[in-house]
TrEMBL record, chain A:
NDH-1 shuttles electrons from NADH, via FMN and iron-sulfur (Fe-S) centers, to quinones in the respiratory chain. The immediate electron acceptor for the enzyme in this species is believed to be a menaquinone. Couples the redox reaction to proton translocation (for every two electrons transferred, four hydrogen ions are translocated across the cytoplasmic membrane), and thus conserves the redox energy in a proton gradient. Transmembrane segments: none annotated. It is found in: Cell membrane. GO terms for molecular function: NADH dehydrogenase (quinone) (non-electrogenic) activity; NADH dehydrogenase (ubiquinone) activity; quinone binding. GO terms for cellular component: plasma membrane. It holds the Pfam family Complex1_30kDa. PANTHER family: NADH DEHYDROGENASE [UBIQUINONE] IRON-SULFUR PROTEIN 3, MITOCHONDRIAL, NADH DEHYDROGENASE UBIQUINONE IRON-SULFUR PROTEIN 3. It comes from the Bacteria. This is NADH-quinone oxidoreductase subunit C. Keywords: Cell membrane, Membrane, NAD, Quinone, Translocase, Transport. It is a peripheral membrane protein. Belongs to the complex I 30 kDa subunit family. Residues 24-46 are annotated as: Disordered.
TrEMBL record, chain B:
NDH-1 shuttles electrons from NADH, via FMN and iron-sulfur (Fe-S) centers, to quinones in the respiratory chain. The immediate electron acceptor for the enzyme in this species is believed to be a menaquinone. Couples the redox reaction to proton translocation (for every two electrons transferred, four hydrogen ions are translocated across the cytoplasmic membrane), and thus conserves the redox energy in a proton gradient. GO terms for molecular function: NAD binding; NADH dehydrogenase (quinone) (non-electrogenic) activity; quinone binding. This is NADH-quinone oxidoreductase subunit D. It is found in: Cell membrane. NCBIfam families: NuoD, PRK06075.1. Residues 1-10 have a biased composition (Polar residues). It comes from the Bacteria. The gene is nuoD2.
Amino acid sequence: MSSAHTSSGSSAYDTSGLPLASAAGRLGTDVPAPGRGTNGSSLTNEQLRERLLTRFPDLRADEYRGELTVFVEPGQLLEVATYCRDDEEIACELLSDLSAVHWPAGDHVIERQISTTGWPEYRTSREHGVVEVNYLLRSVRRNHRFRVSVGTPDDAARIPSVTSLWPTANFHEREVFDMFGVEFPGHPNLVRILMPDDWLGHPQRKDYPLGGVEINYENDKFIPPPHERNLREVVE
Amino acid sequence: MSIDQHSTEPASAEVPATGTSADDPNELFVEGADWETVVDAIEDDTLTVNMGPQHPSTHGVLRLVLELDGETVLRVSPIIGYLHTGIEKNAEYRTWVQGSTFVTRMDYVAPLFNEWVYCMGVERLLDVQVPERAQAVRVILSEFNRISSHLVWVATGGMELGATTVMTNGFGAREHILDLFESQSGLRMNHAYYRPGGLAQDVTDDFVERCESLLRYLPGKIGELEDLLTHNPIFVDRTQGIGVLTGEEALAFGVTGPMLRAAGVPHDLRKAQPHSGYEQYDFAVPTETAGDSYARYLVRIAEMRESMKIIRQALDTLPGGEVMVSDKKIRWPSQQALGPDGSGNDPEYIRHIMGESMESLINHFKLVTQGFTVPAGQVYIATESPRGELGCALTSNGTNKPYRLHLRDSSFVGLQAMDHMSRGHSISDVIVVVASLDPVMGGCDR
């Protein structure tokens, strides 16, 4: 079969131009079986934390149930992520997962079925709404995993895209953009992925109701083909 | 593939329509029609074709936008999001136990793995240890599920290449595995058999016997499939060298599981980060080096045999005892077991709550309707599903429901590599590439 065909030009569907993670190039041909300790043993959470905090002293790290979480500001994310990928010890070739959690501002009643079930009512209260985006970084060679957590205000959620580091992030960031309204500057094609392109609102935000939602198409009569849509406008 | 292999002259607007070409006056040139514009059009334009959503390999809910030059694929864009199950959002409004019934519907070809990873997430948040018997039963049933999932993959993959015998044989063998699931959980899929803390109920008395007979039956059926495909010239020609993904590229795209192992990376979460007692079983991680669709076939066939090895060991060492944690704040007090009449109530327990202890009845009622609360925090736990890493990111805020549930499904991640794997291949190879990816769209949408 012929080798991979390259083509120029762009379209609304364009996924080209994604660089392959350069970290993967260092993987070499003989990758040792992970967990067998042939190519350096895995780092413990303590060692990971120490190494990260030596390089970035202002980071905050936390451990819960044996999982390490590193809290990073959006502005610092690319630097930290690049370090985690390229450092010889940390060496995270794989972006395991990218997902988000929404913590809205104000009083938030978690139970909405009190009248029918008698379930206990839980309330949370926050001054500022936050969307937390979690990056699960995994090293196949070293066999460790940790979480990088980035918080961003939910009314102006912007986090730089990591698609240039891990192409995996492409779909993930589109999903978080679609479901939580987080913008990822630098993403090659940041359009909705699960909902229709002109859907209004972000369904997995906590203030988005469950059920009883009107059909929220902005253009309910005619949906133009993707290359004719003004996606930025729809997003606002 | 390009038309200029056949035309002697480059089509150009400057060519005078005099009957001879400008470069070579002796060469005759076709007159009287707009051939130049036709040739221009063919040379310059690419064709965009929407494949699916109705194609069987895409299970009705995946649209592939192909950009074609003749039959050669220039670009593939997978368009997902047709299922709208909303499971992740819905689960935020259900108790932790009910979450198990939701997630099992995500990847409906390997439902037990979804339940497993979800339950392990809740158990890690609760910080409880599942009884050994429950762990062993989970391993046995899940490995059977891995075989049934791979059988579906071989069956549908073969069908897409025109091998309908492979399809009927594969699905036929899978039926027997589903019979086993039905006998234990009551359902052939969407089991909700794994619950946070253990299993919904203990296995039946004939469980080991049923597994044994399956272990006797399956090798022959897998051998049949191998006889049909492994050296079949059509199958080999259609799959070898198609959709190549090297180990580096696979990791860059986040592709794990059999596709990564077919590219020579022996990465398996059952070995790398063992859970549920996988460390005590002896099994190999099959790998291939080619990284093409044929290598993925070989890896999956070999994996089925390894799964049977694990099941054999787990059956031989199946421990007795409870299948649910003993914590009375988590387990339902009734010792539920499937009675001869098909009901799940234990007569002893009914006597107890009706005649002896009102508090026990209240406790059961509250546990069933309100569920238990889970300490606040967030965890991520992953297992090796038939499609690769299946991760569960759970966030709890200390209530009786998940604050946020997210599953990292390999179908969703793997579809991004479609474009890279298909470029330069012919349009018919796209089918093979999709098939070798083994996507299940339920897991893709969630």
